[in-house]
Request: fold
Amino acid sequence: MVEGMTLDELKQVTIDYYVNLQRIKKADTSNNPELEYQLRVAKNKLAALGISTEEYEM
Reply:
């Protein structure tokens, strides 16, 4: 965990990051392997924090 950051803050930052990636994906009409990789990583981080990503899918 980042020093000085609570678990709730870490969860919120990770959710925000995932949602931002989802917005980029929705706006990007081309195939972007790096974006897909970043989405998978963020989704796994959220799962490790016990957060389901279903409600954040666009």
Summary: Residues 8 and 50 are 12 Å apart (CA to CA). The chain has a mean pLDDT of 91. The chain is about 65% helix and 0% strand. Residues 7-27 form the longest helix (21 residues).
